[in-house]
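Narrative of accomplishments. A recurring question from our advisory board has been how the design workflow behaves on a single, concrete structure rather than in aggregate. To address it, we present the structure tokens for one chain from the evaluation set, followed by the sequence designed for it. No filtering or post-editing was applied between the two.
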């Protein structure tokens, strides 16, 4: 859009030169020095050609060239006093450049905005005063309006182009992330999830290998989703997705929001540990063919992490019996862990329908 405005300026300068040429040729025999008037016209034509070529290249639109443009227009305006007759000047005849001089004001506005346009307008007005002596209100108002309004509009256009360019870049980045995610999801991520699961099952050194694989899987998932696993770390916040997504493997499906879910670091790690404990129970008690789904939800009031399986389930009261017998796995590793950070955990199950563990951390 800005380049189109520069092209429009070039067209205006050429038409203004043609208008000035008609007046100079028509009135040159009335000048005190007719031949010099034609020399000024030739100079205007040459400078029009110079600016036409130079302004076509953004790199050439320098402050020096803009200042020279204004200076040339001022010289041609002031030269009218030595070329035209005093009688014609006092009668209010136009300067030799006429509206051609406004081209430098418009160039200043395009290059530097409203303030640059107004400064150039004041310079041209000063040259007009030096040539005519009395200030001409109409010309003054038109030059100030041209410099200020065009400069203001240019700043709006530049900001709009920057916003559009940024949006296009973000769309391109999102498309590239989607392409990467599709290409690696069925290969690298599944292999890392399998290594994580098998390593935890084998224990010993294999468990350490599984832990490292889980970390790399979290980093890779964060990369293809466009977020860092430590988003907000500098402010004491962590992305809950970083502790939820590594839980996925061949039997476990994890679904998370597309944007970061931030909680204080202690709450995030407690939530992840409680979810991992719930999944361990699925592996040990739900049955060899049981599948599991982990869902992370975020709203203004709380963060909710749900672990649900389609395993064998258990009867009501079994958790109470386990706690009375001293087996405090669920009571401590899940319920107690959430309560320690101000959250809550609930377990719903029945024989044959699986188990659902709901972990809730309020934001207040």
């Amino acid at each position: 859009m800005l380049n189109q405005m520069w092209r429009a300026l070039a067209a205006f300068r050429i038409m203004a030169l043609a208008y000035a040429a008609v007046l100079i040729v028509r009135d040159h025999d009335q000048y005190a020095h007719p031949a010099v008037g034609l020399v000024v016209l030739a100079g205007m034509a040459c400078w029009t050609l110079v600016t036409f070529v130079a302004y076509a290249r953004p790199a050439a639109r320098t402050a020096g060239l803009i200042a020279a443009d204004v200076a040339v227009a001022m010289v041609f305006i002031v030269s009218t006093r030595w070329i035209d007759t005093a009688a014609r000047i006092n009668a209010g005849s136009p300067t030799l450049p006429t509206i051609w001089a406004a081209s430098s004001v418009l160039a200043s506005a395009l290059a530097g905005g409203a303030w640059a346009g107004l400064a150039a307008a004041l310079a041209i007005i000063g040259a007009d005063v030096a040539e005519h002596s009395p200030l001409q209100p109409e010309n003054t108002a038109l030059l100030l309006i041209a410099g200020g309004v065009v400069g203001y509009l240019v700043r709006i256009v530049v900001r709009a182009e920057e916003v559009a360019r940024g949006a296009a870049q973000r769309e391109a980045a999102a498309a590239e992330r989607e392409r990467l995610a599709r290409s690696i999801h069925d290969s690298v991520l599944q292999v890392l999830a399998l290594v994580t699961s098998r390593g935890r099952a084998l224990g010993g050194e294999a468990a350490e290998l599984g832990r490292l694989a889980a970390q790399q899987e979290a980093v890779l998932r964060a990369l293809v989703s466009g977020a860092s696993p430590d988003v907000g770390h500098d402010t004491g916040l962590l992305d809950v997705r970083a502790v939820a997504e590594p839980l996925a493997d061949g039997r476990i499906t994890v679904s998370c929001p597309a944007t970061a879910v931030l909680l204080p670091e202690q709450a995030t790690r407690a939530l992840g540990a409680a979810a991992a404990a719930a999944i361990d129970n699925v592996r040990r008690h739900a049955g060899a063919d049981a599948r599991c789904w982990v869902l992370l939800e975020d709203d203004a009031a709380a963060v909710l992490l749900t672990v649900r399986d389609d395993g064998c389930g258990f009867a009501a009261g079994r958790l109470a019996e386990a706690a009375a017998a001293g087996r405090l796995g669920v009571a401590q590793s899940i319920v107690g862990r959430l309560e320690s950070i101000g959250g809550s955990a609930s377990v719903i199950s029945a024989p044959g329908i699986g188990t659902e563990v709901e972990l809730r951390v309020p934001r207040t």
